[in-house]
Amino acid sequence: MQIIRDYIFVHPDARGASVAIGNFDGVHLGHGAVIDIARNQAIDLNCPLGVMTFEPHPRQYFSPGGPGFRLMNAESRANRLQKLGVEKLYEINFNDALSALSARDFARVVIKDGLELKHVVIGEDFQFGKDRGGNAADMAQFGKEMGFGVTIAKMIEVADGEVSSTAIRNALSGGRPQDAAKMLGHLHRIEGEVIRGEQRGRLLGFPTANMWISGLHQPKFGVYAVKIDVLSGPFAGSYNGAASIGIRPMFDGDIPNLETHILDFEGDIYGVHVSVALVEYLRPEAKFDSLNALVAQMTADCARAREILENA
Question: How far is CA 176 from CA 136, 141, 206, in A?
């Protein structure tokens, strides 16, 4: 998959795609439906399939000090889009110049002149341009005027309602990763680099792969049964595990992180990028009376995670 971050200085082979446009946070079922429409148009027009998104996320750009809300970082999103067969990822730099474009100028400067897109697919709730001044109907009109096709995709629904990133965040906040997975079409994953922690888990007999989760929406704090993919290096592969998300109240922590104990694993994966998928919520965080009590609970957590994952 080719990643393009500019819309002015663009190589000719990066132009002329059929694209789905949006933030694609989570790459959920609704996003997949929009991408499938763009895929069909790409086949009909004999052109590449693309996705246009923005980095940083516009919400993050306008409120840099706000709480973490993203379901995926850019790396995780790109990995998921590649699995869906996207050939061109237009990960456009969201900056002062782009945010100042009116809706009409965005259509002309970015879509028509810059990237020469053949077709764009947007959701019916799509808004774009300065102060979110343009909507889906405006994009359709600009397409007619400027010579690119436009399809407006309807919202996807599941049994419990419409699929949206907000609904997925709510499910994760409630400790319901299975409900989130139904809307995503895949398990919710947290991806990033394994960092060196304080190695308390190793001393307790449960070494963990530690990851920062700053900038991301934080699922309900507690212990989860997880699947973990080691993405590179000599230990690359898929494993089962038990993970803790939170602030480690037993050790008076205050910065949330993700600590994953990989079952039946021995190896050094510091600095390696991994992907941790939340399968089932086991219990909330707790502060125990002693380290022995903590170890006993961790043993029980791992046994429960093993049982769940062997039957998943």
Answer: 32, 41, 25
Task: Give the Cα separation of 85 and 18 in Å (integer).
Answer: 13
Answer for the pair 264, 225: CB distance below 8 angstroms, yes or no. no
> Does 91 qualify as catalytic in the annotation?
no
- Tokens representing 225 are 């049964």
The residue ranges of every structural domain in the chain are 2-155, 187-310
Q: How many of the other CB atoms lie within 10 Å of CB of 13?
A: 9
CA dist 34 and 261 (Å) reads 37
Tell me the pLDDT tens digit for each residue of 268-281. Answer: 999 999 999 999 99
* Entry pTM: 0.88
What gap in Å lies between CA 190 and CA 28, rounded to an integer? 14
- From the list 95, 88, 105, 96, the residue with the least C-alpha distance to 21 is 88
Residue from 191, 259, 280, 310 carrying the catalytic annotation: 259
CA-based nearest residue to 98, from 56, 39, 137: 56
Alpha carbons 102 and 296: distance in angstroms, whole number: 60
According to CATH, the superfamily of the domain at 2-155 is HUPs (3.40.50.620)
Query: With contact defined as beta carbons under 8 Å apart, do 16 and 48 qualify?
Result: yes
| CATH classification code of 187-310 | 2.40.30.30
- For 19-43, how does the pLDDT look when each residue is reduced to its tens digit (9 = 90+)? 999 999 999 999 999 999 999 999 9
